[in-house]
Amino acid sequence: MPALPKWASDPRGKIPEKYERWIEELSDCREDVRAGRLKKKDFDKLARQRLGVGGGVTHAIYTVMRNRVQMTGDDDFRIPKHGGKPERLPSLRSWDRETEVFAEGLTWDHPQADSVKDLIQRRTAVFKEKYERKKREKITNVRVRMNGPIAITHLGDPHVDADGCNWPELIKAVETISKTEGMYAGNIGDTTNNWVGSLQRLYADQSSTFEEGVRLAEWLLTSVPWLYVILGNHDSWNNGSTLVKQILRRGSVATCTAGTARIELTFPKGDPIRIMAKHDFKGTSSWNRIHGPMKAAKLDPWADIYVSGHKHHWAQHIHEGMDGKPRYSMTVRGYKYCDAYADVGGWYDHDLGSSCTTILNPTATSKTERIRCIWDVEEAAEYLRWVRRRQGYAS
Q1: Residue partners of 193: CB distance under 8 A and separation at least 6
Q2: Contact call for residues 64 and 7 (beta carbons, < 8 A)
Q3: In three state form, how does the secondary structure of 216-271 look?
């Protein structure tokens, strides 16, 4: 192969005038050379026929046409510096260009996309609506229409389809709440096992089917008036949260959320009482089982009562806040009394505290008597009836 002249091998070399004329005469071959469709052997043959030159000349012309980008200006052919971009690229046909002639006799109008201004206006409207809804749903305001004290029984994790669900205790709570005037319920979450993913294998270890679990959940969620229903981690798996919400359409509930239920109860007489319920408050301690709700009460002293579940143990704590108001923190055990997962983990097994009832007495003269916690649901119902009779509200 003939040796290349220095100007041909140098990307910035000046092309001699006679070579520029020869390259111009072969300009119709340029795109085929650059695209590799015209091989060097065929180009040499074509260039010799047209120009009557030897192999050294055709070799230099082929190298220039193959490696250099055509530009406008003084330098007709040059290669841009490494990393740079050419000033003008050859025009190419594109299927997405407006009114592009793609084939003979065929044209079309490319649909116009929304302008950035329209996109921003639409996204702003979506954000404002979503943010306003978030603010509205942050606190649930509940008006208590009946006079006198009422009671809220906070039920721990039910797990109604688990073989280890303590049905005698659960039935006792449901019956007591449903027949006692002024008594309402709260569900701290995990109504069913609702196994997901690899955990679905555990359905083989329980005697109830998924369908039976749904029927049991429907019975529980429509048997008592609910102040709140929390969607626990089990409820949120698969489409469990949607299932719970659809069942609650046939029941009675003030609020249902997978996050934190902030509820402000206002009464015909007396000051409001606030409840913050969550499946599990952040924070754990080996020495304090009530650490999560206590931490929430310290860092977010909005409520009077802080209640959670999830860990299947029970505890209670009362402290006076900086504002002089007592704050009640509690975690309820729930109804799953036989739990292989807890057995393997070696966690302490609690036999009490499946639910806790808070008696709310908004007109009490003593701050310490506005809220009273009772851990036996039947004793709580008896106390509620007594305190209502004492204040003249017995039915």
Answers
A1: 159, 161, 162, 202, 203, 206, 213, 234
A2: no
A3: HHHHHHCCCCEEEEECCHHHHCCCHHHHHHHHHCCCCEEEEECCEEEEEEECCCCC
Q: Quick one: pLDDT at residue 82?
A: 46
Q: What is the pTM of this model?
A: 0.70
Most distant pair of Cα atoms in the chain: their distance: 123
| Overall fold of domain 139-390 | Purple Acid Phosphatase; chain A, domain 2 (3.60.21)
CA 214 to each of CA 194, 200, 209, 211: distance values in angstroms, whole numbers, following the listed order: 9, 15, 9, 5
Domain boundaries for CATH 3.60.21 within the chain: 139-390
Measured between its terminal Cα atoms, the distance across the chain in Å is: 113
Q: Which residues of 108-128 are buried (b: 16+ CB within 10 A; e: fewer)?
A: eeeeeeeeeeeeeeeeeeeee
pLDDT confidence tier of residue 46, bands split at 50, 70 and 90: confident
CA distance 95 to 107: 10
Question: What gap in Å lies between CA 224 and CA 173, rounded to an integer?
Answer: 10
Instruction: Decide: helix, strand or coil at residue 95.
Output: coil
Question: Alpha-carbon distance 222 to 239, whole Å?
Answer: 19
Q: Which one, of 263, 272, 265, 187, lies nearest residue 221 by Cα?
A: 187
